[in-house]
Amino acid sequence: MDVTLPRGITGFLDAAARPATLPVYDALLDQGKFYARARIAPILTQAPIVFLTADGFPRYDHRGAAPARTMKTAAGQANFLKLFADGVIEGDPLSVPPTLPNAAFSRDYLQPLFEWDEAAHSVKVTGYVDLGSALCTDARAGLAKGEIDAAAFIAENGFHPAQCIKSNGVLQDPEDVEIGYVKAGDAAGFTFLIHAIGDRAVKTALDAIETARAENGTSTRHTITHLQVVRPENIGRFAPLGIYTSFTFAWAVVDRPYDLSVIPFIDRVDGPGGIYDEDGYYWRNAYPAASLQRAGAVVVAGSDAPVDTRDPRPFVNIEGAVTRSIGDPLPLNTNEAISLFDAVDAYTINAARSTRQDAFSGSIEPGKKADFIIVDQDIFALADAGGADQISETNVLQTWFGGKLVYEKE
């Protein structure tokens, strides 16, 4: 627990568990070294068959077989399921041709023309391919028939013919298969954690949960995680469906090298507003935490570790939730910032509710397990004094688990 306890983490959801993970948990527990309240979410992969083991991991196929209800271990319960609705929204400006994002989006991605800027040691956008032009129509037809000479096309037109391709990304599985997954898992008593990055994937996840609850007559509160782009008309659907909205707030900030791999494929950035145009679709709809909260949704915070960092960084994420900026003077749409109180709730009681641990954890009150931490600065006083940008510097001095001191900073 060399990552969780120094960060004050006493409960978590393992959001992509595999069979080999469980003996590790149990071994730590047997050694008296497991100080966390774990929930286990086996990962569902592509149809037709997903995660089938002899010791009770859930199974599902698109012909309608339902998963087993639960699979318990000494360290936690595998009564959650992780489902990917789509992939990622980053493209690759440096590949030839530039690779488009594959997250499921509501409209076709743009095809930017990138150029390497040696002075800035970065790529820049010099223009866009006209996907509706006769040139691109002919190029798509030629590519489909295998009758186009890419080198000659580039020499004549200045860009690769594959940059005439239209794509709005892909769902991990067809929509009906995803709905089938969620219906079967929901009926069997599982709680879903659904990865949805693009706005079309978010809508599909909402549709799947809505269908499952209506047809099964259930009221399980599932979670949709990441929510990098959400269409405004879908904001109001989360609360009535009881869906928890999970964010990694360290990503809800301006990150200039990263943003060049995302925003130019969604919004034109060669105009006067540049890449951070406040009227841009991405700027207005990226990580809409405050909008979801205003619409009655419960906001949950997490790290997604070890995807981009092994360190779960709770105080970095809290700072990002409050300031929408970490290390860059420009915040990412402060209209979507949430208060410090709400950010702490997102990491504590709201997270406990979403992982079904709130009866005994997530808050300090009589009858609960006395999980708490001691930190080296008062982040509320810090924020009140205008120092919210220093929240990420907070250090955990002590971590207590069930009333027992289990970590102390040297």
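The record above closes out task 2.4. Task 2.5 opens with a second protein, given below.
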Amino acid sequence: MPSLRKYILCIPLICLQFCLLLPAGAAAVDEFKVKREEIYEFTQKPTVTRNGDKVTIRFTSKANCDVTVAIEGAGEKIVRHLASGVLGSNAPEPYQKNALAQTLVWDGKDDQGEYIDDKEQVSVRVSLGLKPQFERTLFWSPKKRISPGNRPQFAAAAEGVYVFEGGGVDHLRLFDHIGNYVRTVYPFPPDYSSPEARADSPEALKLALGKVGGLKWTQFPQDGKWFPDWQGLLSGTMLTSGSDCGKTGATKYGAAASAMALRSGGPGKPSQLALVMRSLNRLATDGTTGGLPLGGPTTAIEVPKTETQGGEAFPISAAFSPDGKWLYLTGYADYDTVKYGNFLPCVMRMGYAGDNPPELFLGSQKYADHGKDNSQFHNPLSVAC
């Protein structure tokens, strides 16, 4: 049966490894690395014999390298993942440990446990080495809601609608005007256009995210590489503006923004984005921070602590001035008072690029000053310029 006598030699482009994060340096980490020998040759080429439904596969590798054995059907589609791993002392089943000569038995079934009746139409593939390729992400969609407890924020532009949502995993994405996903603005997309950013060096990721200002970085002792710090109790976000970046509370209930504003940058230029909650985060629609530091001043307002007030009020609406210099905020309410419909009767204003917190623009920062005539605010919920 010549169709059962197929073997392929694969040379690895990427080696996958898992190691523990230990502070003892490279020598300690080496102890936990996969002990593979990067020699990808057969000393005995694969052979196949068949006895009814049972198919026996034999081969001998020249070294303890990665070996994958698969059964392929029409169009070289894998119908049974028979074995995969590194030969040697820790070789996984069904490989024999401490052996270069291997004998494997295929029971004639596919990955679902069903017998393949027409075995003349399948091939055995024995591969030495690894060449991982991305196929798809399971259970993911750019339109999937990640948190029913946080309101998404929307900002319309000529190119589409920017949508922010938090709830443990902050994300900001662009959809066109008929709902098609276009691209992700945050998490920040690395720029690998330069050879230095693509290099396997300690500074590579810093260069790839070089246009994101204000990130904090940590150098890991395992390999000396720099990675940006992730914020929050569960290290779930690089943003610093919201309720998910503190050291208390479960990150799954927090978000980086209770309000978002956008100002168009004009033809061919990225627009400005403001994410606001406890403080200001500055982004640009091209996935950078537009030349400004990410983190800005505090935007929350302290309020008295009572049975129905939590001591800190956040805005739920934000808008840029036409020139982009100012950011206006309103709809201030702490978590508890929202349930009672009480919002601070004020509009606040702050400089977008500056370091000063917002100042009172109109109205009052006291709950008791709600009014009902033309000189007062009652419950301001939205602001626009």
